[in-house]
Protein 1
Amino acid sequence: MILYDYYRSSAAYRVRIAIALKNLFVERRPVHLLRGEQRDPGYRAKSPLGIVPTLQLDDGRLITQSLAIIDYLDALKPEPPLLPKDPVLAAQARAAALTIACEIHPLANLRVIKALQGEFGARDDQIAAWRRRWIAEGLSAVEALIAPAPFAFGAEPSLADICLIPQVYNARRFDVSLEACPRILAVESACTAHPAFIEARPEAQPDAE
């Protein structure tokens, strides 16, 4: 399998964590978002939206969208499971993950920021405020959803942790205060000591700059 990736993409970061948790070998091919490589026609043939990550299977079939890729990996190698066995906890873990992937991440991703700058003339300080607003509001909701034990929904990492840690990375990158999020900070502490999360962090990737 081949993962089309960018070291600082939080969506790709999620998939790298899942790959590491599953102890799978996946070839990585970086797509440099700031250089516009995602708009190359060859890559757009793989990812019609021109986003990362994209997973190419050994038979050539393609899967886009980080949560769809993670779901495939979980089905491909069921152990360790990425959702709790209890159906309510599993649904709650999904809800936390979707809050991040659907409610926080899209509002601060590169395509949206470029549109705010290029089409609406937003200044750098306005962009910074925009990012801080939506990340802080979203993480406040996640704070209320999780119950560290020590991970977001139990003794082992789940889909919620896989989505949360890249978003916390972005929060720190964009100077969003986490003082009001003690549960998130507790989960972060547990995750940053876990080998899979260490392996997947942006600074550890071959294309890191």
Note: DSSP finds nine helices and four strands in the chain.
Protein 2
Amino acid sequence: MLKFVLLALVGLAAQLVDGSLGMAYGVTSTTLLLAIGTNPAMASATVHLAEIGTTLASGVSHHRFGNVDWKVVARIGIPGAVGAFLGATVLSQLSTEAAAPLMAVILLVLGIYVLIRFTFFGISTRHLGRRLPTKFLAPLGIFAGFVDATGGGGWGPVGTPALLASGRMEPRKVIGTIDASEFLVAIAASLGFLIGLGGQGIVWWMALALLLGGLIAAPIAAWLVRHLPPRILGAAAGSAIVIVNIRSLLKAFDIPSAAHLPLYIAAFTVAVLAIGWSVRSHLRTRGQEAAATEAVDEGATEGDAVVA
């Protein structure tokens, strides 16, 4: 019972981050399942089954707050489903010994990307409102879907930064659209795992625990997406993913125990510095925005005085 409750809390926390950032539910949940000894294909299959429910709830919640561009959902979600089905098939055919280090590397790379992306870079909106071409969305969807299934997560870490970097969608709509389209990806990946692994390839009670936590968090995350600082959340999520997957890699490659402590210390140091930098950047940006608003207000007041 304790494990069920803990997994539900993990699902809740992961969905809060995912619903606020447009990424990290699958990566965070899969990382935890791997850490407690679940084999890679089973971990990804279990998480994707839970995601059918969480992504549906998240998509509906984001739609209610006007955070979804449904035209983009169709053009990126359908190719994403194709990529996810292919990725699930590939992972299902790999042995546990071969898949464990492969998934750990993928998750580590995604964690580093999330960490760097949200620690050091802002969001570009230079081309806000311009239509995103299908020739950009379709390949992106296929690649992100494939990475998502083989790595146990990756739809958000690949898709969200790409759409943000395009500058053609509001950040809140990028997050809502990625979360809504992930419903198609989760269904396709689950079908691929069911075909490749059968029903015994899924830990049903774990999927249920993750699902319950995610369902509770989905509407909260959709509301919080306008209020929580993405840089800080992204840096924290990326740090956690990196640290846990360093542990998986040390185990998978039989790294001498003498090297473990220095690597962990280095990883924790980087995490603390990254989160600190993110907090500082957020506060600086907020201060600049406040100063700009104050300057505009003062200019308007002086203009009124001159007219008077």
Note: The chain has a mean pLDDT of 77.
Protein 3
Amino acid sequence: MRALVLLALAGFLAQLVDGSLGMAYGVTSTTLLLLIGTNPAAASATVHLAEIGTTLASGIAHWRLGNVDWKVVGRIAVPGAIGAFAGATFLSSLSTETAKPVMSAILLVLGVYILIRFTAWGVSTRDLNKPVRRRFLVPLGLFGGFVDATGGGGWGPVGTPALLASGRIEPRKVIGSIDTSEFLVALAASAGFLVGLGSAGVNLGWAVALLIGGVVAAPIAAWIVRVFPPRVLGSAVGGLILLTNTRTILNSDWVAVSGPTQTAIYAIIWLVWLGAVAWSVRAHLADQRAAAVIETPPVPRPAPVED
């Protein structure tokens, strides 16, 4: 019972981050399941099963608040579903010993990308009225869906930064559109895992716990997406993913690292992580001050008094 409560809390926090940043529900939840010893394919299957409900709730919440660009959803969701189905069947064919470090390596790369992307550049708001081309969205959807299924998360980390970097969609609509289209991706991934695994290894109770927490958080996250600085949250999530998956890789058969070396690696990651968050907070406050100066009208000088 205690484990289910903790999973529900994890699902709540993961969806709170995902719904307000457009990423990290699958990555965060899968990382947690891996840490407690779940089979990698079963972990990803369990998370995607829960995501069917959480993404539906998140999509509805974002739609009601006007955070969805339906043209983007229509162009990226179907390729994403195709990629997710292919990724799920591929992961299901790997052994546990092979899949766990492979998945952690994928998650590690995504964590580094998120950390660098949001810390160094934040979000872009230029050229918001230009349409996003189908030739960009289709391969992005295919790749994002495949990575999402094989890594247990990745639809948001791949899709959200790419769309933000294009500068053609308002940030809140990027997040809302990615979250909404993820419903179809989660559905296709679950179907792929069902074909590859059947129901073996999928913990329905864990999926329900993650689902409950995520559904409760979905409307809250859709609201705070307007007020919480994505740059700071992106740096925080990227560092967390980097730390947890480095631990998995260092404890695998891929590497042979002594205890003091591991401690040094963890210390470096902590310092980089804290530095990145501090930098993002400073940059966000600087942007706010600059915006306040621009928006504040100059105070008119009084006319000179003639004698």
Note: DSSP finds eleven helices and no strands in the chain.
Protein 4
Amino acid sequence: MLLEELKTFVAVIEKKNFTRAGESLNISQPTVSLHIKHLEDELKASLLVRANKTFHITPAGVVLYERAIQLLHLAEQTKEEILWQHNEVSGILRIAASYTIGESVLPEILTRLHYKYPDLHVEVAIANTEDVEIAVREFRSDIGCIEGSVQAKGLIIQPFMEDELILVAASGHPLTNIRHPRGADLQTSHWVMREVGSGTREYTDYLLQSIGNVKPSKTVIGSNEGVKKAILCGLGIAAVSIHTVKAELDSGKLVQLKVDVPLQKRIFSTLYSPLMAAKKHVNVFLEELQSK
């Protein structure tokens, strides 16, 4: 099996379309079809069942897709290991990060990384914690950065930073005039929160259970920036990472609510496959995280 043919097969599965797969690899659609045919002839198995303009992957295709991802990563790692002998760090590092880390923590770290390794290109995908874990397991990302808890079976998880979650409201919100808002005050307030599956939502649910297991009026927004802007507009109150609102707290646009419920600290962690443990790209990124 040729690596180029495996790349084509993976692209077809992930793009769900022969033409789009060809465009992503800068090859023609007939070449894509030829690569798939060569693989099917060599393996003596049907990999895709075509129907009109769509297709379905066969059980044999599922096996090849999983193995192809691993083989392509191993090929890339081999290339990198040879470059390491010449002290070169180049190529692409793919990071999947939860929203808080991706939006508020990584920019500074990636800036330092760029100045140290200008030939290293970084791609960051931002998603909730559950989706970050999936991206790492499926080798769509070399390493993940997560908040909250995950079932990391088969993966390596390492803490790198502590985070504090606080309750905030916009300056002028009625609760900001109360020195210590009580549980009843929080129960009757409108809440702005992240979606289920995010680390911040996990903490918000914990906080709500602590004040009486209530289900308040709420607005759900799928990003930290969206939550923050809604709070700044006066929509309600929110539990957020202190990293995401530091500038607004310093300027007085947001106010931390001093609640009696113990606020939670959590750990930011990296998550990666053992296959990535020896990858130079991953190691230089981990070193930069630990130096923060």
Note: The two ends are 43 Å apart (CA to CA).
